[in-house]
Write a structure and sequence with these properties.
Elements: H1 5-32, H2 41-67, E1 76-78, H3 79-89, E2 95-97, H4 101-104, E3 107-109, H5 113-131, E4 135-141, E5 145-152, H6 189-199, E6 203-207, E7 212-218
Helix pairs in contact: 1-2, 2-6, 3-5, 5-6
Length: about 220
């Protein structure tokens, strides 16, 4: 009998967790026994970093298992809070938030604001890596939808698409963005984002000839 994907991912996460905990425990012990000038210290730190990435993969696999059959249309979060959390979660720290107060008070439908913010952060990180610069998070509002807009701040001649104030843009690359949730180099963060956004009924696309990423989200209390 075939093991279903959620169960497979849960088993994988469990099997990774045990040996990695042992390896990291011994590496930390070895590191504590050496000072920063010891010849082995850089090597041990590199191994800790590598095993930390593997541990993160295990956690992400477990989260994907949860989101394969997860409904996300109960509860709400203010867009301003969601945007701020998103910016903090972008690994490179390359995202700034530009929302005016009115749109920041819009409530987005979600049962898990942390997971939704992490999904948006994964897309922001993708945009930052593709363009080699900072990303601005803005938004616009319609009757039942809020569109979160991720605009690289270094695309020449392109004004941010949100409602809030924006700083001056810098000149850099105008390479089109490509949304691919199965890209390598991001761990499972983009894969997990695809499940989280799908559970939210989100519509993800590029706009302005691939110069922005737009994510349509349902307003709390709105009709799909």
């Amino acid at each position: 009998m075939r093991v279903e994907l959620p169960r497979l991912l849960s088993v994988l996460a469990h099997e990774l967790r045990g040996p990695l905990s042992v390896i990291q425990g011994y590496l930390r012990l070895m590191l504590n026994q050496r000072d920063s000038s010891h010849a082995d210290t850089p090597m041990i730190r590199a191994m800790l970093d590598a095993t930390g990435r593997l541990a993160a993969l295990g956690r992400q696999a477990s989260d994907v298992a949860i989101w394969t059959n997860h409904a996300a249309d109960a509860g709400a979060v203010d867009l301003a809070a969601l945007a701020d959390k998103t910016a903090r979660l972008v690994p490179s720290g390359s995202t700034s938030v530009h929302l005016d107060q009115d749109i920041g008070r819009e409530a987005v439908s979600t049962s898990d604001p942390d997971a939704l913010a992490a999904a948006l952060a994964a897309l922001a990180e993708l945009a930052a890596r593709d363009t080699g610069g900072r990303v601005e998070l803005s938004a616009r509002s319609a009757t039942d939808l809020v569109t979160v807009v991720l605009t690289p701040a270094d695309v020449p001649g392109l004004e941010p698409a949100g409602d809030g104030p924006h700083g001056a843009e810098t000149a850099a690359t105008s390479r089109p963005l490509t949304i691919a949730f199965d890209r390598g180099g991001f761990g499972l963060s983009l894969v997990l984002a695809s499940y989280v956004l799908d559970a939210h009924g989100a519509d993800v696309r590029t706009a302005d000839s691939g110069k922005r990423v737009e994510v349509q989200l349902q307003k709390a209390g709105g009709s799909r």
